[in-house]
């Protein structure tokens, strides 16, 4: 097997069927062997039945893996362990991929300079941004998993997003698996398990490739088009950033474990929000406040944990 497409799923049998239909018709060069490895993360709906239908319809193309331990990172790591392919590509259960997506995403691996790649993630057709959202702001659509650096291919200087990325297997052998303290799981919507891994590679001196021709379309539910969802996402992102070590160098100037720079910034962005006239500007300031609040909450919580245990918790403990 040359390529394993990894798809982890939990209680999304309807959108899962759509995602699998799209990847089933992938157009790959002759002589390239590939599979779709679907990890059922202990779903309670008809997920297993949906996957088994594809296993039956496309013999040798789809594989089913059951991972009972809850959490996206557990499912991802289980998939890595259950695949032997030298190239691992990743997609989600709520996207549709273009027929040439896999071929375009993985063709860079003919060049051994690059250890990973990422492509564009667009919203489903017909998507219209909410009036309170300024989509021109960088990463404004990150809570909807949108990733678009333009039409020009080239080296990636930032991590790709998890629903459209691929890595050589050796990346996991050399840098470890996805962190289990990141990624959605019962009781926590803290994410960043994908971007943390990509950043780990970049910090290790590895090179990644941006392939804009590798396109997936991400479904956008009405629930995700609410301000409450965006704020909750950014709050979790703030917590994840602290877990990844952001502001670690600022801890010498801190209060109860909270870097003072976070406290200063949350005051500044709160005031900017009060003085902003446009609705989208006010919401952008509010996003910054919630992101900083997440970082403050995580910093304080980690400090309390260390004080209570009497030992220093190593940054990034999985």
What is the helical fraction, as a range of percent? Answer: 25-40%
Mean pLDDT across the residues is 94
What is the count of β-strands? 11
Any idea what the shape is?
globular
Biggest sheet: strands, sense, closure?
Answer: 9 strands, mixed
Number of helices: 9
What's the Cα radius of gyration? Answer: 20 Å
Question: What is the end-to-end distance?
Answer: 30 Å
Query: How many domains comprise the coordinates?
Result: 2
Order of helices and strands: EHEHEHEEHEEEHHEHEEHH
**What is the highest CATH level, the class of the largest domain?**
Alpha Beta
Strand content: 15-25%
Which segments are poorly predicted (pLDDT under 50) over 5 or more consecutive residues? Answer: 312-318
Which structural class best describes the helix and strand composition?
Answer: alpha/beta
- In CATH terms, the superfamily of the largest domain is Spore Coat Polysaccharide Biosynthesis Protein SpsA, Chain A
The CATH topology of the largest domain, please? Spore Coat Polysaccharide Biosynthesis Protein SpsA, Chain A
Q: Provide the CATH architecture of the largest domain.
A: Alpha-Beta Complex
Description of the molecule:
- The protein has 318 residues and is an alpha/beta fold.
- It has 2 domains: 3-225, Spore Coat Polysaccharide Biosynthesis Protein SpsA, Chain A (Alpha-Beta Complex), CATH 3.90.550.10; 227-309, no CATH class.
- It is 38% helix and 18% strand.
- The chain contains 9 helices and 11 strands.
- The strands form 2 sheets. Strands 1, 2, 3, 4, 5, 6, 7, 8 and 9 form a 9-stranded mixed sheet that branches. It has a two-stranded antiparallel ribbon with strand order 10-11.
- Mean pLDDT is 94; it is low at 312-318.
């Amino acid at each position: 097997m040359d390529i394993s497409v990894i798809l982890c799923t939990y209680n999304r049998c309807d959108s899962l069927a759509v995602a699998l239909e799209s990847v089933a018709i992938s157009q790959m060069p002759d002589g390239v062997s590939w599979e779709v490895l679907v990890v059922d993360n202990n779903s309670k709906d008809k997920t297993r039945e949906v996957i088994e239908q594809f296993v039956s319809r496309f013999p040798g193309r789809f594989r089913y893996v059951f991972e009972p331990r809850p959490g996206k990172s557990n499912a991802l790591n289980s998939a890595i362990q259950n695949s032997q392919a030298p190239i691992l590509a990743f997609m989600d259960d709520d996207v549709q991929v273009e027929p040439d997506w896999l071929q375009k995403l993985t063709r860079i691996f003919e060049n051994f300079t690059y250890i990973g790649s990422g492509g564009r993630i667009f919203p489903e057709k017909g998507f219209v941004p909410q009036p309170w959202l300024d989509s021109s702001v960088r990463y404004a659509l990150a809570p909807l998993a949108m990733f678009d650096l333009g039409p020009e291919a080239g080296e990636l200087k930032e991590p790709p997003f998890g629903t459209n990325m691929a890595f050589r297997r050796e990346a996991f052998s050399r840098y470890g698996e996805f962190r289990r303290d990141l990624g959605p799981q019962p009781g926590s919507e803290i994410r960043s398990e994908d971007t943390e891994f990509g950043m780990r590679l970049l910090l290790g001196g590895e090179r990644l490739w941006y392939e804009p021709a590798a396109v997936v379309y991400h479904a956008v539910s009405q629930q995700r088009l609410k301000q409450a969802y965006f704020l909750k996402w950014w709050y979790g992102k703030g917590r994840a950033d602290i877990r990844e070590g952001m502001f670690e160098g600022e801890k010498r100037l801190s209060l109860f474990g909270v870097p003072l720079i976070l406290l200063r910034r949350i005051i500044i962005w709160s005031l900017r929000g009060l003085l902003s006239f446009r609705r989208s500007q006010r919401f952008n300031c509010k996003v910054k406040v919630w992101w900083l609040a997440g970082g403050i909450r995580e910093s304080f919580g980690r400090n309390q944990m260390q004080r209570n245990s009497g030992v220093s918790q190593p940054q990034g403990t999985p």
